[in-house]
Amino acid sequence: MLKLTDVEVVFNPNTPYEVRALRGLSLKVERGDFVTVIGANGAGKSTLFNAIAGTITPTRGTIQLNNRDITRTPEHVRSARIGRVFQNPLLGTCPGLTVHENLALAARRGRRRGLRPGVKRAERSVFADLLAMVGMGLETRLDSDVGLLSGGQRQAITLLMATLADPDMLLLDEHTAALDPNAAAQIIDLTVSLAAERHLTVIMITHSMQQAVSVGSRIVMMNRGELVFEICGGERAAITADDLVRRFRDLARGDELSDRSLLE
Ligand SMILES: Nc1ncnc2c1ncn2[C@@H]1O[C@H](COP(=O)(O)OP(=O)(O)OP(=O)(O)O)[C@@H](O)[C@H]1O
Ligand SMILES: [Mg+2]
Question: Hey, which of 12, 25, 37, 45 would you mutate to test ligand 1's pocket, going by the most ligand atoms within 8 Å of its Cβ?
Answer without folding.
Answer: 45
